[in-house]
């Protein structure tokens, strides 16, 4: 491995050239180009920033103690304000004023894995983004306190998420469920359900974003030392490979630093995120993949394990967090990663319902380092990398 290669990989998202391309592409795509880096501790600093505002409204003898109680009184004031009058009093600083969901329709089948819409509460600096989830009909679909929606029986219902901080603010998912075991009772709905079932999450927002992106030509592709970059972003998937010789020797320095920052932020939110697998060499991946093939057959192995040279883990920029298995999908840590990893420069690389596009099944635990600017763009777009860059992920044969 030459130094040049290593340098290229380590600085891809920070070097001036790709950034210039980013700016051009961003402008062409009609996307907001973030000039200033997003604060790595957005939520936290938001809280800190809001304190002086609150203090300013209080008497001049404000002390640390007062600050501590401010949060409580703010919360109860919000509740009172909202339940009594919806308009007269302005909401206290730090209040939640809006909720956006990553999808608002879900067509499910009984027996399907749960689906979980990603929640974005606004403003970003709101103090308390706690969510309250409920279903209008638990015989149709249940929802847990993280927003995991599970189909129970045929029918339709509404799953609602409400801001605990400001209960006047809520968002809803229209859920329709078919029960494949009871085709008779759900005759008409089956036709509907089956056509849309595979598109759960192929929601309005995603479609809009996809359409916007589709107006643009494919991203600018460069191949340097056998490594493919789109708009300066290194891409490794079923179509684009890394050379066998490519070996950064571990997590890249940028990835390592960003991951430490992510872990720190998760810890502040009471969660522990660890790496259970990050860098894997070409040779390690080759062994791993062939073990899976021997155990599960090639067709199955190809859905969850990359062939050597096709694994993002070889980049040194991919991390499997906590538990690399489906049991992780419904955990608070998975939810936290899905909603916050972008702030630290990572994306959940293989999202739910994008299997056909990424080429890999949903992996709530696998995050990929892109740098903060790119991670925010991808997160905001609601697209996976392949959609964003208009590229494939398919093995040649
Ligand atoms: Zn992984």
Please outline the helices and strands:
Blueprint (H helix, E strand, L loop, with lengths): L2 H8 L5 H13 L13 H16 L6 H21 L13 E4 L3 E5 L9 E4 L8 E5 L5 E3 L5 E3 L3 E9 L6 E9 L8 H11 L6 H11 L6 E4 L2 E4 L2 E2 L18 H16 L6 E3 L4 H15 L1 H7 L13 E4 L10 H9 L5 E5 L4 H4 L4 E7 L2 H10 L3 H5 L8
Parallel strand pairs: 2-8
Antiparallel strand pairs: 1-3, 4-7, 5-6, 7-8, 9-10, 10-11, 12-13, 13-15, 14-15
CATH topology of the largest domain: Muramoyl-pentapeptide Carboxypeptidase, domain 2
Distinct ligands, ions and cofactors found in the model: zinc ion
- What global shape is seen? globular
CATH architecture group name of the largest domain: 2-Layer Sandwich
Mean pLDDT: 76
- The overall number of domains is 2
- What is the number of E strands? 15
Strand order of the largest sheet: 2-8-7-4
How many separate helices?
13
Structural classification = alpha+beta
Percent helix, as a range, is: 25-40%
State the low-pLDDT regions, or none.
Answer: 1-87, 184-215
Q: From N to C, what is the helix and strand string?
A: HHHHEEEEEEEEHHEEEHEHHEHEHEHH
> What is the terminal-to-terminal distance?
29 Å
Question: Which CATH first-tier class of the largest domain would you pick?
Answer: Alpha Beta
Strand content bin: 15-25%
Rg over alpha carbons: 23 Å
Biggest sheet, in brief? 4 strands, mixed
């Amino acid at each position: 491995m030459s130094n040049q290669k290593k340098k290229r990989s380590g600085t891809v998202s920070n070097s001036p050239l790709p950034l210039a391309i980013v700016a051009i592409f961003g402008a062409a795509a009609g996307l907001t180009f973030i000039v200033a880096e997003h604060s790595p501790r957005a939520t936290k600093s938001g809280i800190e920033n809001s304190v002086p505002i609150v203090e300013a409204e209080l008497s001049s003898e404000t002390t640390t103690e007062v600050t501590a109680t401010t949060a409580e009184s703010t919360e109860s004031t919000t509740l009172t304000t909202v339940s009594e009058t919806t308009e007269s009093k302005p909401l206290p600083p730090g209040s939640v004023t809006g909720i956006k969901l990553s999808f608002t329709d879900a067509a499910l089948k009984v027996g399907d894995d749960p689906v979980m819409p990603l929640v974005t509460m606004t403003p970003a600096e709101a103090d308390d983004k706690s969510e309250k989830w409920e279903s209008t009909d638990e015989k149709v679909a249940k929802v847990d306190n993280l927003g995991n929606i599970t189909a129970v029986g045929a029918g339709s219902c509404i799953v609602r998420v409400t801001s605990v901080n400001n209960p006047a603010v809520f968002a809803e998912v229209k859920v329709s469920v078919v029960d494949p075991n009871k085709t008779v009772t759900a005759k008409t709905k089956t036709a509907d359900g089956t056509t849309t079932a595979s598109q759960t999450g192929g929601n309005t927002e995603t479609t809009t974003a996809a359409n916007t992106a589709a107006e643009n030509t494919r991203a600018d592709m460069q191949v340097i030392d056998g490594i493919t970059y789109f708009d300066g972003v290194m891409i490794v998937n079923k179509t684009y490979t890394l050379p066998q010789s490519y070996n950064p020797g571990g997590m890249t320095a940028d990835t390592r630093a960003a991951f430490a920052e992510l872990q720190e932020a998760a810890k502040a939110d009471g969660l522990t995120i660890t790496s259970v697998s990050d860098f894997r060499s070409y040779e390690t991946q080759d062994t791993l993949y062939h073990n899976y093939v021997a155990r599960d057959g090639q067709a199955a192995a190809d859905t969850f394990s990359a062939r050597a040279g096709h694994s993002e883990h070889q980049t040194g920029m991919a991390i499997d967090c906590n538990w690399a298995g489906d049991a992780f999908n419904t955990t608070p840590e998975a939810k936290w990663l899905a909603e916050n990893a972008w702030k630290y420069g990572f994306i959940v690389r293989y999202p739910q319902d994008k299997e056909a596009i990424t080429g890999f099944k949903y992996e709530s635990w696998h995050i990929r380092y892109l740098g903060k600017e790119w991670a925010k763009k991808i997160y905001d777009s609601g697209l996976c990398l392949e959609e964003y860059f208009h590229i494939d992920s398919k093995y040649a044969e």
